[in-house]
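Researcher: Sequence of ABC transporter permease subunit follows. Predict its structure.
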Amino acid sequence: MDIPRIPLGNWIEGSLEWLTSEYSMVTRGISRVTQTGIDGLNDALMWLPPWGLLLIIVGLCWWLANARLAIGAAAGMALIWNMDLWDPMIETLTLVVIATLVAVVIALPVGIAAALSERLYRVIMPVLDFMQTMPAFVYLIPAIPFFGIGSVSAIFATVIFSMPPAIRFTTLGIRQVPGELIEAADAYGATRGQKLIKVQLPLSLPTVMAGINQTIMLALSMVVIAAMIGADGLGSEVWRAIQRLRPGDGFEAGIAVVILAMLLDRLTQSLRKQRKS
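Model: Prediction complete. Tokens:
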């Protein structure tokens, strides 16, 4: 006996078509605003001469971390400049910064709400498991009908892909605050908002920063993959090298991605250590 096939794919396609037709004005508005932000930040970073931005990055590493990271950042950025990948690196950095900001702005309130509500926590954890196990390439599919080919679609897919760690770590950090401190705040008559702002969030900040660190790393990996749907940056250099069978160019772009990832990772870890101290 043949079992009827569930037309799940047809349902998903129909839902996407309905959403894109019904909310086209909204998606166009979001696309214009996002593209304006991308162009503005990209132009601002491009306006600075490479040596000027390099000095700013080195000074930031020295201030937030130590001289060793500053020296490593100087060497890594100089290598990217030497390989003529400075402009693609700036484009990648722009996409990562904007996607991370949007993801964190969405994730923090959701994570706080899930930490304070047991019912919401039980609902959102399976959703996060689903989002984190879904292959990264799948997130590129709904981005195209909503926003078309280009950097805006890359931002959309990157935000969805990179958001779960920030939500999960925010929830975890708040829920791990010792109960004795919560009871002490209650004894002093603190309201729910005061407990959140003055007790739970400050104590959970190192964990929240770890979640933001993971979000940045996932955003960087997704921005590289998003070159398949027209995103500019180092990912497009890798994709172009694959299409033209130029392994050397691909490895150079890959090395630049690794340098940028290490730099962002060390900077966020330094911020986390400062918050702990």
